[in-house]
Write a structure and sequence with these properties.
29% strand, 6 strands, 6-stranded mixed beta sheet, alpha+beta
Length: 157
């Protein structure tokens, strides 16, 4: 049953070629454990401010204190009521160990993940972009992080 739920959310036709990781939406903790247990590559957008094992800060708060790796500009396409515009994103990255939430039957083991943040600067409106992506991909360089963010950008197009 778990495999069916995760596969429903994670598998996207052209991602199956394994040249890029699966992109997963929704219940990210469920996806992370399934994907890690099956040694699969993935990028998951964090939707909750998770508890970290190695500190007092939460995931989003720890990222806010992380040094900016670089910046770049993208074109945000028109969609629904949103107008086409340019957005400058600042990129941060960090390896963190996330505490799994309590589940019936116990708490799963903590998960060490690579985290990439892409946050729009110079825009304080409600439609400001801010993506926190959990991944198994390398995050050593700005280009590594930019590739991960691009996977996520393509999934929304």
């Amino acid at each position: 049953m778990l495999a069916n739920i995760v596969e429903k959310w994670c598998l996207r036709g052209w991602y199956k070629n394994q040249k890029i990781p699966d992109l997963c939406g929704g219940a990210e903790q469920l996806h992370m454990h399934y994907k890690l247990d099956n040694r699969q590559r993935f990028v998951v957008r964090a939707t909750q401010n998770r508890i970290l094992v190695d500190g007092e800060l939460l995931l989003f708060d720890s990222l806010a204190q992380t040094e900016v790796l670089g910046k770049y500009t993208i074109v945000v396409p028109q969609k629904g009521g949103r107008k086409k515009r340019k957005a400058t994103l600042q990129v941060k990255r960090k390896k963190m160990t996330i505490q799994a939430p309590q589940r019936p039957g116990g708490r799963p083991e903590p998960v060490t993940m690579n985290i990439v943040s892409a946050e729009e600067i110079g825009n304080d409106s409600e439609d400001r972009l801010h993506w926190v992506l959990l991944t198994t991909e390398d995050i050593e360089t700005f280009e590594d992080c930019r590739s991960i963010i691009r996977f996520y950008e393509l999934d929304g197009e």
